[in-house]
């Protein structure tokens, strides 16, 4: 491996894996979501009760763009908005009925992928890979 191309090779491999997993998950779940809606729902699943501002920050997009996608997800039953008790102007995003179904299907998909990983890689290999990816994540967050 040439050291001057290592970042490009790592980035390309991560991108390839992400594209494959996204295609597989979309085929498995059968939900009609655009890329931003897919990411938003994933964030709501991973970070329950997030505010629209927090979601916009995590996605590095404007609050306006998030609001447009949230309105569509709410209309389609994927999410609901829950008003904060103390600040009546603020609200958090929760999974709606369809969002909960989506979450269940994603969890089932992830279980299948986990089984595939274990069929081809040892527990030590998986642990080492996860450790390395977590280190890369920390490095990239320092930029």
TrEMBL record:
InterPro entries: ArsR-like_HTH, HTH_MarR-typ, WH-like_DNA-bd_sf, WH_DNA-bd_sf
Top-rank lineage group of the source organism: Bacteria
The HTH marR-type domain, residue ranges: 3-138
Keyword DNA-binding carried by entry: yes
Pfam family, one: MarR
Keyword entries, A-Z: DNA-binding, Transcription, Transcription regulation
Gene3D superfamilies: Winged helix-like DNA-binding domain superfamily/Winged helix DNA-binding domain
GO MF, one annotated term: DNA binding
Name this polypeptide is given: Transcriptional regulator
Species in which this protein is naturally found: Lysinibacillus fusiformis
């Amino acid at each position: 491996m040439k050291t001057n191309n290592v970042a490009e090779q790592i980035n390309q491999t991560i991108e390839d894996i992400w594209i494959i997993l996204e295609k597989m998950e979309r085929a498995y779940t059968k939900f009609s979501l655009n890329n931003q809606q897919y990411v938003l729902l994933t964030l709501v699943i991973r970070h329950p009760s997030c505010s629209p501002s927090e979601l916009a920050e995590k996605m590095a997009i404007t609050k306006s763009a998030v609001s447009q996608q949230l309105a569509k997800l709410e209309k389609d039953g994927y999410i609901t908005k829950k008003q904060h008790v103390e600040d009546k102007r603020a609200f958090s995003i929760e999974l709606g009925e369809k969002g909960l179904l989506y979450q269940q299907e994603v969890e089932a998909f992830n279980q299948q992928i986990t089984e595939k990983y274990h069929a081809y890689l040892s527990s030590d290999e998986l642990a080492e890979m996860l450790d390395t990816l977590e280190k890369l994540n920390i490095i990239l967050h320092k930029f």
